[in-house]
Amino acid sequence: MSLESPSADLLARVRFVLVEPSHPGNIGGVARAMKTMGLSRLALVKPEVFPSAEATARASGADDVLYHAALFADLPAAVADCVLTVGTSARRRTLEWPELSPREAAAVLLEAAARGPVAVAFGRESSGLTNAEMERCQHLLRIPANPEYSSLNLAAAAQVVAYELRVAAMAGGSPGGLPRRVPDGLPGGLQGGLHAGPPRGPEAAPPATAAEMDGLLAHMEETARAIGFLDPAAPRYLMRRLWRLFQRARLDRTEVNILRGFLKAVLLAARRGEGE
Ligand code: SAH
């Protein structure tokens, strides 16, 4: 049985990214968890062993998901074309990342999937996702588990998320399935990051992808250096703040192009000034 479109189309746009999984059995387990819920896009970042007979055995009939899995060198490469990335973690992080329950995250992911590919990133069995990887994510998904023993097996965590995505898709995806309340613990300034902000009409440009945001940030850094604005003692601080600011603004492609045009002019003026 399959879901009738467009819900099935939305699920087809959701990618599960496993960052450096060390146990091939878990990769197979995730493939199975995905296929049972109608998901098919699996991306692997530097798996320790892949392909492997153990992964295929654990996939148990979902080996087509394994067969089509895409391999990447790092998380940014795996989500380059995505308009939204949700990171998963058993641990509470700082308030920097708006935390969503699996149900809330499913609604947010499907809403964004209507506008482009989206990703859910899962961490290493031993140590989860690094802070640098979490910074590539707009939201943090935490499965509310036993506080004394909150770390699920990787494939079990993937199953929970996949199930909520399916339930949300069956309920009609976006926008009816959106969470009504702002999730707890969202810092005031980040509340708009979910789905607030001025409404975007049908004529709105497509949302910026992760790769386009990377391009903007690199351009910003180059310009900040050229005009002596970047503090050489703490260059990453400014860039991290700007990254968060731009994420919150949910820039579309046209806005990225406007900002990059502006930066180009600033760089040009700075270089002309140097020549004088
Ligand atoms: N020791 C690691 C746990 C890794 S479990 C840590 O402290 O982070 C492997 C992966 O499964 C995690 O990176 C996450 O992607 C997922 N996971 C496990 N438990 C989870 C939970 N309660 N909520 C969300 N994701 C979870």
Descriptive notes:
By secondary structure, the chain is an alpha/beta fold. It has two domains: 7-191, SPOUT methyltransferase, trefoil knot domain (Alpha/beta knot, 3-Layer(aba) Sandwich); 204-275, Helicase, Ruva Protein, domain 3. The protein has helices spanning 7-11, 24-36, 53-59, 63-67, 75-78, 102-113, 131-134, 154-170, 210-226, 235-249, 253-275; strands at residues 14-19, 41-45, 70-72, 84-88, 99-100, 118-122, 139-141. α9 crosses α10 (235-249) and α9 (210-226) packs parallel to α11 (253-275). Residues 173-197 have low confidence and may be disordered. S-adenosyl-L-homocysteine is lined by residues 88-91, 122-123, 125, 127-129, 141-143, 145, 150-152, 154, 157. Residues 88-91, 122-123, 125, 127-129, 141-143, 145, 150-152, 154, 157 line the site of S-adenosyl-L-homocysteine.
What spatial form do the alpha-carbon principal axes imply? elongated
- Low-confidence segments: 173-197
First CA to last CA: what distance? 71 Å
The CATH level-2 architecture of the largest domain is identified as 3-Layer(aba) Sandwich
The CATH topology of the largest domain comes to: Alpha/beta knot
Over all CA atoms, what is the radius of gyration? 20 Å
Helix count from the secondary structure assignment: 11
CATH 4th-level superfamily of the largest domain:
SPOUT methyltransferase, trefoil knot domain
Number of strands: 7
Enumerate the strands of the largest sheet in spatial order, edge to edge or round the barrel. 3-2-1-6-4-7-5
* Number of individual domains: 2
CATH class of the largest domain: Alpha Beta
Alpha-beta content class = alpha/beta
Quote the beta fraction: 5-15%
